[in-house]
Amino acid sequence: MTPQSKLEQTTDAISDFLRSGGAWNSPLLKPLLHGAPKLADVQIGELFGPFRLLQRIGQGGMAQVFCAERISDDFHQQVALKILHIPLADDPFIAAQTAILFRRERQILARLEHAGIARLIDGGLNPQGRQWLAMEFIDGTPIDVYVRMQLATPHAICQLMLQAGNAIEYAHSRLAVHRDIKPSNILVKPDGTLKILDFGIASLLDDSVEDDPALSALTRHFASPEQLRGEASTVQSDVYQLGVLMAELLTLSPNWKLENDPEIAAILRRACAESSCERYPNVACFNADLRCWQAHQPISVRQASWRYRAWCLLRRQRVAVTVGAVAAVLLIAAISMFVWQLVHARQRAEQQAIRAESVSNFLVQVFNAASPFVAKGQTPTVNDVLQAGVERLDKDLAQAPEIRGDLYMVIGRVHVTLSQLDQARPLLERSVALGRADTTLAPEKLAARLRMLGVVLQSDFQTQAATMLLVEAEQLLLPLKSAAAQKELIGLRRNLALLKYDAGDLVGAIALQRASVADAIARFGPGDALVARGKANLAQFLANYGKHSEGLSVMKDALETLEHTLGASHPDTMAIRSAYASMLVEGGDLSAGAPLMESSIANALAVTPKTSPMYALQLASRGYLRREQGRLPEAQTDLEAAYQIARALPPADDFVSVTVLSELVELRLAQGQAQAAWPLAQQMLARNQDGHHAIRADLGQRPLLAAKVLIALHRCAEAQAYLQQSETLMRARIAASSRLYGELLALRERCIGLDQKNIGSSDS
Amino acid sequence: MDDLAHVTALLAQAHAGDRAVWGSILDALYPELKKVAHAALRGQNNRRIAEQDLQTTALVHEAWLRLASRAPMQIRDRKHFFALASVVMRQIVCDFARERLAHKRGGALWRQSLEDSVEALDAEQLRHAQRFVDLDSALAELEHIAPRQVRVVECRFFLGLSDAQTADTLNSSVRTVRRDWADARAWLKRAVSV
């Protein structure tokens, strides 16, 4: 910032300060406004739960802190007791809701048991309704004071940062984000070990006390850019704060200069990147680089970035199993891709709106933290949290339709990422209804809501309803000239093309996708990722239309474009490479397809938690490849491992177990064990029921597979029923993939052939 | 307006020596004061009303306590009440600012605490505290030159009255209030430099 502009800013700030009612709006008054008089009645000796207040040791805008002791004859325990100044609302409903959320958050905190985290010992409401927390009492020095006193070297600082990082990483794995990492929250004990204080308490407070950084401005210096913008804090906000903390501590180290240490500079740059996307994806990666630096190994900023990207890739391309139904994969991948893009689009436009002051960032954060991608596959009580969120929204934000609509969208999106489309739908419907009724709402916002709902309906094969929504969104976007709106429009048309495909209009789908690709090239140039994504769609349509070789070449073209523009390890590139490999393998070109598919699966496996659905799907995918290659024992190993994972998944994830089971059936058939295949096929069918998730991806291939088994067992009469079922599905749901339909016809003939043979043999 | 007329009548009664009336006056004026505070807070942001209510209560309460501790006889009528309230608000806020700064200079003892606290030495808050202290002394100077402008600043800036309400409270015209407000701001801007 130039001195001139700094000066102007200051002058503006003073004018702003000296306005009517300015005194009330000053951050100085915030503590005064938040009820200092209410605190006066806390007395030394007073009881909070089993603790007696001994001495006041601090007071702030958000809490008073006392040293307290447990009243017990058995043992002596000293705690730091924090009494939050959350003024409970007069409205008993709000009060009850606050209490519920408070209790829930406390439960999360109570789960944090780590040597580096000051433990939450107890908490509750006293008879006056005041919320209190008893924390482990720590006798230590704030980390910055410690560093200054010890004249710590950069290596010693690094060691401290690793300790802090480990503790925070642990908490992240337990769904707690700190949000307020700063020197005074990290105490170093005389033995050199450290403890982090107040984990998640900031978020606890933010629910009731307004989280407006401009007003609270408590630790602005350490706040991440997204926090300053008022967006939800995430794991990456903590990464940012750790980076700032480390930079701060290093400046306290004698004789240390940033410019003399390019590697540390690179690590800090990455940790404190403005966009959370460019930061370390998690604290573990930050720690890993610190360790490398300590050990004088090359730091892996590049590698870490690749990992993150691969992780992103998995988030979208979570169903990369090629069970012969490219369309299903395509469809689901399109949804995940859309969700993923949305997450990123949020950083631009949507969050601006969500930022609105009365939105409880706490809720948003709970939602985000509950996403299994953030929580590494753990989704405890996510439905409770979301449900509580919806109820709160209805009550608290009745007067703010725009924000309410935004938040329905946020919650709906979380449900979508959890594959809970049934739960997502009513919320998105409400969001759309609110948007339609609100004439002041920005058209691109309504379009985004319409698109989201459309995609959910699309995945439920409600093609017509979805099309109407997307066309409505298209009409909203058409007059907008901004590049973002244009890009959204091109993405929207990709969904529309898929819908045409679903409706059986393969020719129309191809035409629309071709036009949209041409449009994208004209507007954004041939090298844009949008163009490549459109081409990938087109390629799969073409392949299913029977133009396999043209499809392959379009896909290859898309892949090369992306490798050139985004690089080989970009998630888009990897997604398309994987699709290309699958097409090659499905087209029978094992020599070219297998190595590509192999490497894409290996990459995915390397970055996926071993118990996650994605891991199982990737294993199934490899099982499929091995079977195609004739490496049946290896295929069996992969599929059995995949089945173990799939069985342990919650029932909502039946897509995975059904997919794995169908691969196992295929394997048994390939091994010539039709007898063993049948019970597996029955299991598969039992899970492939209406109303479940798995059946959404059934384009007829599963009854078809059952028929295949029965025919192999020469039980043709039974097989007929499945063939019929399969045909119905194909006709109802999709322009029957020519490959699948061809297989159906072939099996029919086979059946007829077998029947004749049977008749012949019984005659003789 | 009936309520307000009622308040003025009550004040006259209290003034005439009926101390029991004082309680009713408090009850009637307290919501008034809160209304003014809400309007001021609503000025630039659209927070939920319930939240505003929580926020304003404490400060209004404090202002109220200070006003109530004065002998009722000192308050002549409703206008006078607001005029006093604006002075009281200035006192409360500026005292608070000085307290904050003193706390900082006193050498912040570090404590294990939530620490968003007074001791957190939050730069933004401290800057504002300094502003209020500067403002207070600038107003003290202005008092010698243009006391009417000071009253306007107290009503508008500290209490958050509109210019019409200010004119009413100070028995002045809206135009005069606007001119005074503009002059005072220009003068104060130079004094408050941080």
Topology summary:
The complex is a heterodimer of chains A (764) and B (194).
Chain A: H1 3-17, H2 22-25, H3 30-33, H4 36-39, E1 47-48, E2 51-59, E3 63-70, E4 78-84, H5 92-110, E5 120-125, E6 131-136, E7 141-142, H6 143-150, H7 154-173, E8 186-188, E9 194-196, H8 201-208, H9 213-216, H10 225-228, H11 235-252, H12 262-271, H13 283-294, H14 301-316, H15 326-354, H16 361-370, H17 382-396, H18 401-417, H19 421-437, H20 443-459, H21 463-477, H22 483-502, H23 506-524, H24 529-544, H25 548-565, H26 571-586, H27 590-606, H28 613-629, H29 632-648, H30 654-670, H31 674-687, H32 701-712, H33 716-733, H34 738-763
Antiparallel strand pairs in A: 1-2, 2-3, 3-4, 4-6, 5-6, 7-8, 8-9
Chain B: H1 2-15, H2 21-42, H3 49-68, H4 78-105, H5 123-145, H6 147-159, H7 163-169, H8 174-191
What key phrases describe this protein's structure?
heterodimer, A: 764 residues, alpha+beta, six-stranded antiparallel β-sheet, three-stranded antiparallel β-sheet, globular, disordered N terminus, B: 194 residues, mainly alpha, 8 helices
Protein described:
The complex is a heterodimer of chains A (764) and B (194). With 764 residues, chain A is α+β, with helices and mostly antiparallel strands. Chain A is built from 34 helices and 9 strands. In chain A, the strands form 2 sheets. Chain A has a 6-stranded antiparallel β-sheet, with helices on one face. A 3-stranded antiparallel β-sheet of chain A has the order 7-8-9. The radius of gyration of chain A is 29 Å and the shape is globular. Chain B has helices at residues 2-15, 21-42, 49-68, 78-105, 123-145, 147-159, 163-169, 174-191. The termini of chain B are far apart. At the A-B interface, helix 1, helix 2, helix 3, helix 4 and strand 2 of A face helix 2, helix 3, helix 4, helix 5 and helix 6 of B.
